[in-house]
Every structure is written in structure tokens, then in C-alpha cells.
Amino acid sequence: MTVVHPVRTHRSEERLPREEQLAWKIAEVAVDPVEIEPEVAEMAINRVIDNASVAAASLTRSPVVSARAQALDHPASRGGAGATVFGVAPGTRTSPEWAAWANGVAVRELDYHDTFLAAEYSHPGDNIPPILAVAQHTGSDGRSLLRGIATGYEIQIGLVRAISLHRHKIDHVAHLGPSAAAGIGTLLGLSPEAISQAVSQALHTTTSTRQSRKGEISTWKAYAPAFAGKAAVEAVDRALRGQTSPAPIYEGEDGVIAWLLGGPEARYEVPLPAPGEAKRAILDSYTKEHSAEYQAQAWIDLARRLGAERPELRDPANVRSIVLHTSHHTHVVIGSGSGDPQKYDPTASRETLDHSIPYIFAVALQDSGWHHVDSYAPERAARPDTVALWRKVTTALDDEWTRRYHSEDPAEKAFGGRAEIALADDSTLVAEIAVADAHPLGARPFAREDYIRKFRLLAEPVLEPGEIERFLGLAQRLPELSPAEVAQLTIVAKPGVLDAVRSPRGLF
């Protein structure tokens, strides 16, 4: 049975025992030797495939090229065998924290992997690159890797259920640093003392403002989770060397809750598995069929359906306005409620456009589909009829859709809304959608064959056919992989793919 842990600020003179601190309770979950259930193992395999899919599609994109170059400038450290970098032959190894960095950027760059939304946002698949990097460096087997991944998901999703970061303008990767550190702790079989120190350090070093997801969104959006993963690896290294971290990091008088979140009077209730309870949180996450912010997934599905059924809607001359009635999160993060004029700017960055539901809805409506590259092309964004339609799309806050967004009942939890389209002939078209087609409760829930199809689609331009089959064969045997096989759990680009892009020089 899940245990709900109350968390609040404590004055220094209260001397909160370490066993009552959230970082320690996270560590207790990490060290629990509970077995991994078969369906959890199956979903972890899906997520490993999903991460490799989106990493393959991003191998030649500028942030990924830069991060890879940085990683390759840091050879494997003395303490282990080193870790692989996506795109590069597995014989070339780098230090694990830098592999976590490069691979984390590749996984996040296209905003195209799994998600969990509750009090906070998250992409829990971001836990996999740092945990896998440490597994390769230390010679861990597939079973240990699987256990580490399950912990990473469990901790991040537990924190996301309870603690809102964005409300206080803190970026959501502040939940990722602790979860990745805990996952690495499980992987390595560390003590609660070492894990709690690593969790505290990882949180302390990964709290940053949400400006990275506001206004003109920069390439740092992909780097932010990679930085958290890298920080987690480094935090574990320090903890293993016997070094301590700020404590209590959540509950302290000058800690995260008191000064970065709800303040000294705030109270949070964090749900974590009870001792002996299986780690199943990964089953509550969901992936993306489309390369866009998760809250746009359902809207893309609705728009592409409407565009196919009512092609006249593609012409801005036939449309007076489109109002998307939706949740608070969608309205203020990717909708017109954000107040960001950049969300209507045809020259905006890709990172900005994938956080603009007015743009996304207009393009999906006109194209009756969505493409991870073509839908963001500058010439696509600048098309006059698209700009005209795009600027007729606004969002509106809807209390019922907000309630459903926060519902704990999976049957009514929703990430969509209601579209009201006022037509030039004075008629109105109303259509709604609750969840994306690929959602577990959607029209076409993603299953293993869908993950494999997504991988093939995104990998075929950059991987040889034999490499695609090699990786899929290895990934689907995750729980039984030997250390030598875990060391090969990466993707290698076709000859010439990486050489075709300029590798930037920096400091290293």
C-alpha cells in the first residue's frame, strides 16, 4: 500500500531526524529489494526503445551535435569502463556523467518521448540516460539496470504527483535530479545513507527558474534534463566518496520548500511505495505519437481529424475564430494565456513553436497530420494561409477541463478540451477530445508494435537496417542482458551521418 509522506518546513532548532526527511524516505524506496513485475519490465523495454527512437531522429540537430562533441572530449574516467554515446560506435567510451549529458540532450531535443502530468510536468524517460550510463561504466547487468529505471520512474512520478514546481516558476527538472540519483543508487545497490546524500545534492544543484520554457525558448530546453542527469551522476560520485550534502534539503529552514516553493507554511503530501510494494509508477506514464508538448497531443489528433472530415476548415477565409477551451496548464503554458507573443511569431524557434498550441492546431488542421521535422520547418511556419489561420486560434481557461486534468481517476483524467470554431457563414462547429489517440485510454493506445514502428520510422534515415535489428533484439531482452550486452545498448549511426555535420569547438 502506498504511503503518503507529509512534508513541511522545519525550523533549525526542531532538528528533524534524517529518517523523517524526504530524501531519506526516497532512499528507503530505492534500497527496497522488491522484485520487478513483468508488466513493469515490459514497459521499461518500451521506454528504452522510445528513447532510442527520438535520439536517432535528433542525431544531427545542433544541440545534440554540440552535446556529443562535449562528451567525446571527456574520455572514460579511471573508475570504470566508460559509457557509450548515441550515434557513436560502442568502442568509443566517455565518462558516464558526460554520456548522460549527451544522451540526455538527444532524448529530449525533439520533445517526443514519454510524459507524466499531475501537480507538475515531467518526462520520466529522462531518468534512463544517466542510469544507463552508470550501468555501462560499472559493468552492471540488465536486471540491475531495470531495477534502477523502475526506481527513477517511481520517485519522479511520486514527486510530480505532489509538488508543483511551475507554480513557483521553478523548472520541472528539479524532480529529475533526485529521481535519477535514487535510480543510480538502486542500480549500484548503495546504502540509504549514500543515496539520501546523493538525492539531496542532486536537488540542491538542479533547481532553476522556468525562464527556460518562457517566451523565446532556447536550445537549453533540451539541455536542462541532461544537466539534471549529469548532476545526479556527479552527486552519486560525491556520496560514494563519503561527502555530505545540504540537509534537510526539502524541509530545512532555508531549504527548497521554504524559499523556492510554497514557503514556510506550505504542506505537501508525497506518495511513495510502502516497504515491499512493487514499483509500478512507470505504468502511469504515457508516450507521444507526435513531436510536440504532451498537452498538444490530443489537440493534434482532434485537428487532423477535423481537417480530414471538413477540409474547408483549412482555409482561413472560412473561419472567423477558433477557441480551444482547456485546462489551466494548457492555457498558460502552451496557449494564449501564457501572454507570450512569440507563440504567434512565424520566425520563432522550433522550441517555441512546439510550445504553441495555436500554431500546432492550425498546422495539424491544415495538414491533417503532424511530422517531427516538416511541421516545424521555417517555410511551413511562414506560409501566409497558415499564419492567417494560426492567429485566429486562442485558448480559454475551462474549470471542468482543469478539474479533469488534475483528477486522480484515470478514467476521467484528461489533457484535451473543447474546440469551438466560428465559421464565416455564422455557423459554429464544436468538437472535443479528452486524451490523445496513443494514450492508454485513447482511440489507439500505444503497444510494443507501435514503439517498434516509431523506432523504425525515426531510425531508418540514420541507422543501417542491421543496426536497427540489433538494437531492437537487445532492448527487448533487457531483464536478461549480461554486462557485456548492456555495454552494447546504444545506437550507431550509418557511416558519414555524423561526419556530415560540423562538430563545434569549445573549451574542452
Automatic annotation (TrEMBL):
Gene3D superfamilies referenced in this protein's UniProt entry, alphabetically: 2-methylcitrate dehydratase PrpD (3.30.1330.120)
EC class (word): lyase
Reactions accelerated catalytically: (2S,3S)-2-methylcitrate = 2-methyl-cis-aconitate + H2O
Span of domain MmgE/PrpD N-terminal: 20-268
Signal peptide start-end: none
Protein name stated in the entry: 2-methylcitrate dehydratase
Pfam family, one: MmgE_PrpD_C
Assigned EC number: 4.2.1.79
GO molecular function: 2-methylcitrate dehydratase activity
Similarity-based family: Belongs to the PrpD family.
Domain MmgE/PrpD C-terminal: 290-474
Highest taxon listed in the record's lineage: Bacteria
